[in-house]
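User: Predict the structure for this protein chain, please.
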Amino acid sequence: MSTKNAPAVVVLGQNSVVLARKMLTVLPGGTLYGLAGRTSDVDVSFTNFGQTLRELFAEGKPLIGICAAGILIRTLAPILCDKQQEPPVLAVAEDGSAVVPLLGGLNGVNDLARRIAEILNVKPAITTTGDLRFRTTLLSPPPGYNLANPDDAKTFISDLLAGARVKLEGTAPWLSNSQLPIDSDGDLTIQVTERLVNPTPNRLVYHPATIAIAINNTTNEDETVTLIQQSLAAAGLTSVSVAGIFAPITIAANPAIHAIADTFSVPARFFTPNQLEILLSKGYSLAQATALTATGILGRLMTSSSSAVVAVAIAPEPIDPSTIGQSRGRLAIIGTGPGGSKWMSPEVQEILKSVTDLVGYKTYLDLVGSLANGKQRHESDNREETARARMALDLAATGRSVAVVSSGDPGIYAMATAVFEVLEQDAKPEWNSIDIQVAPGISAMQAAAAAIGAPLGHDFCAISLSDILKPWLIIEQRIIAAAQADFVIAFYNPVSRERTWQLTQARNILLLHRAPNTPVVLARNLGRPGQTIKAIALEELVSTDADMRTIILVGSTKTRTIKCSDGSIRVYTPRRYI
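Assistant: Here is the predicted structure, written as structure tokens:
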């Protein structure tokens, strides 16, 4: 299920959170929305119930409100206009005793209600007459089937309810196993076909997603789309039955492949050389081997040219692309900010909702909170950056969606650089297909500066005092240069259990260029329990003031300290350097 179509569970009180979490176990990618001030341990907090609900509805998200049905109906009533497009909306009793589908009958609300009711061990309050009598919903076919003429369905169903019999042409277990009045001599017809046909009022046509389109390479999206359409037309097939675009993993990074998939509103899936090897050895072209692999041993080719860029094959039953081949792997290197979820950007939160795997230092993974629910965690020691980067790339190469979690900003003394170092040094061919993204976070120096004023208000630099990856001589040279240039300096990694003298040495260097009373900001555990922020004079700075959870900001010669009337201290660096 895509993030866009993943359900939103909306709660108004803390008593509903446990029930919501239970429901989310059967709603992949779902998000828990809670009323601010009344709920905790939710994914998203909101203050305006009506506005939030209407915005989610307008986005097409299935909505599940753990509240009275009436409040959902009254809230959404003003914007209801097209039942063909409206997403499922359900009300669930606070004690889990009732699951009531309200809207979205054409988009699977009853199936969603059954799924939720099953986990709650209750019976869904389904009132759709056709659904109850025939044990199937003709207007809302299961995944893998598309109703070609929904406008004819209402009268068609009315005729069935009035006693008409129906003839079934084609194969569809959800129909043949239903309680529909199936009769080979029926006056009505249900046809299941991937062929181009003309529906009529007494004939419902369902197109199964049985067609696999294989592409062995492309440099021109428009030309390839035209070629696919011509191939389908020549075979008398409808594009509605296309289940996916399939290609070798070696071209997964080609943007044209994904653009073509978007054109047909289907996923792009990829096969490794090992998966295609047997068919290639039998003389099939790369496109043909890819199409047949997608449709299974009983699939049949509809195009036969061995030199064609595109091949079309048909499977005997609907194709579930999520079970075939792999998607293009995604690797997002994210920054959570220095503390908990309040520091995370909306972009990072959306990434965390959609990924399958989290890779990182345990302390940083814990900062993700409830957004880690349902994800595979891969924890490692904080000093194993290279191994962690390699693991993340290997996971993504298998088609998984992976997030490497850093605190602060991932590109500042964090995992983004480690990933790109390994990517370049190891240069594994299978990594070439990965979609890599860096999502920024609030850095520790930004958070520390904001907490006490604006010490970074003019030119500044950042220097790590860790000499694990660079010799102290270089660090010393940079401190001297920064001091001579009169930069405000942010010191990362100032002190560890093994490194206790470097901070003292840095202070001594700075005192050769800065006044003893130069403001120094010490910020520890930013955004976490035990947060402390204080300002001292440079001459007072000692190694026991800091550890690896401390960021230190040393002012320039222009940095000022203000004592406020409430007793607090503010530190800032003027914008004008005169």
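The chain has five domains: 8-127, 145-208, 211-323, 330-442, 445-572.
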